[in-house]
Amino acid sequence: MWRGVIHHYRKFLPVTDRTPVITLHEGNTPLIRAERLAQALGLRGEVFLKYEGLNPTGSFKDRGMALALSKAVEAGGTAVICASTGNTSASTAAYAARAGCRAIVVVPKGSVALGKLSQAIMHGATVVQLEGNFDDALEIVRSVAARFPVALVNSVNPFRLEGQKTAAFEVCEQLGEAPDVVCLPVGNAGNISAYWKGFREYREAGAIGTVPRLLGWQAEGAAPLVRGEVVRRPETVASAIRIGNPANWKMALTAIEESRGEVGMVTDAEILEAYRQVALLEGIYCEPASAAAVAGLVKASRAGKLPPGARVVCVLTGHGLKDPETALTFAPQLRPIAATLDAVLAAIGLG
């Protein structure tokens, strides 16, 4: 029986017999082969989607949060705090509730999708909205954690990345080897850093012989790693990666360099097109930020940056129900019809 990433990967994690295991049985998410998507987009080789939206709170954040909360409780903590564009707030609140701790989440006003904010509220978090962006929020919560006995659980907390690296282990186990290329969305840049840590550790343990190239993808309006400078007012439809000054900037660039990878950017139009295609062709509903990985794959393929026959994994970081408002922008206007067979047949083109 699967009991979460700490139980399953204990020998690779910084835990001891004294570490309480705070878990919602996160991890063990499916790796789904996307044959129709690859064919429709003209992609060569095999494409797989690592669907992290099937974690307990609907995002990859749960892997790291399980470890961050477990270590916070081990250290005697009773309260945790985070800045968030949405997914971190939901995960923090859920795992804090599981641990019996107080959760404080600080979010930019008007920049968090309703699905994510509702989760934090339902799990009893103290929610604070700032007249600022994510980078402002992160600076403030760091100051709070430095002054008061409140554990900071953003990805600057090393235990977060330790938990998130387990996704790299799973990818290798599910494929039977490491893929050739991994495409990831990049916001605060912790996840790409965690994946690289996981792949390196699995190679060092002899579990795989080679490591993949990492291709990180940022939204054009929030692409500090690509531009080489802080973006003061990041803007993108992909709210989860709307970050202008990533906390894990240097670590992510190291991961990209060491893996012989690249960091690039995709437009909102490209993100939304990939978002629709993943849903229409593969039946997988991901949030817009997740689709940046697929949009990036398309861009890399068209630029000739993928070797022929490459086995590629795109990481879908969050579930589409996190941000239903974006999906509804594609919906046609619905008009009620008469409750008759003839009316229904006419409406569906069978009359």
Task: Summarize the structure in words.
The protein has 351 residues and is α/β, with parallel strands linked by helices. The chain has helices spanning 5-8, 35-40, 61-74, 87-99, 114-122, 134-147, 158-164, 166-175, 190-204, 224-227, 249-258, 268-282, 288-302, 324-328, 341-347; strands spanning 31-33, 46-51, 79-83, 102-108, 126-130, 151-152, 181-185, 213-219, 262-266, 311-316. The model has no long low-confidence stretch (mean pLDDT 95). The longest helix has 15 residues, at 190-204. The protein has 15 helices and ten strands. Helix 4 (87-99) packs parallel to helix 5 (114-122). The strands form two sheets. It has a six-stranded mixed β-sheet, with helices on both faces.
The structure class reads: alpha/beta
Query: Which runs of at least 5 residues are low in confidence (pLDDT < 50)?
Result: none
Whole-number radius of gyration?
20 Å
Largest sheet: 6 strands, mixed
What is the strand content?
A: 5-15%
Task: Report helical residue fraction.
Answer: 40-55%
Distance between the termini: 51 Å
Q: What is the average per-residue confidence, as pLDDT, rounded to a whole number?
A: 95
Overall morphology: globular
Strand order of the largest sheet: 1-2-10-7-8-9
